Each structure stands twice: as C-alpha cells, then as structure tokens.
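Re: weekly structure request thread

Next one in the queue (70 aa):
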Amino acid sequence: MPYDALVVAPDKVYAESFEVEPENIALQLHYGCLEADLMMQENFHMVSTKEKCLARFPLAITNSAQSKNQ
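Done, posted below.
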C-alpha cells in the first residue's frame, strides 16, 4: 500500500453510554485534534496545526472556572 495511516484513539472514556453529551463531544474534538497534530508532526514531519485546533475546538469555560477567575 502506498499510504501510511495513523489512528487517534482516546486514553480516557468520555461517556459510559451512547447518549449525546455536548461537553464530552467538545472534549473529544479538542483533545483529538491536539493528539492528531502531535502524531502528524512526529510521524510525518508536518507543520503544527495546534493553534488551528485551539481556535476550532476551544474548551468551554465552566462556571467553577469562571468563579475562580473573578
């Protein structure tokens, strides 16, 4: 096969069921993008897209995090 492929799989279980939880989906997209970026840099010597991951899949600020910052 003329192509190389890598698979990104989470280390953490984000949900115990098949229910759709927007917070868990957001976490998976955020950390999945960052992990894919590292793999692409390490294995294919590509330029980092970390800033694009952070812009496209930002983590929401929770109420507890907001209260700590005030």
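Residues 17 and 23 are 14 Å apart (CA to CA). The longest helix spans residues 22-44.
Next request, please.
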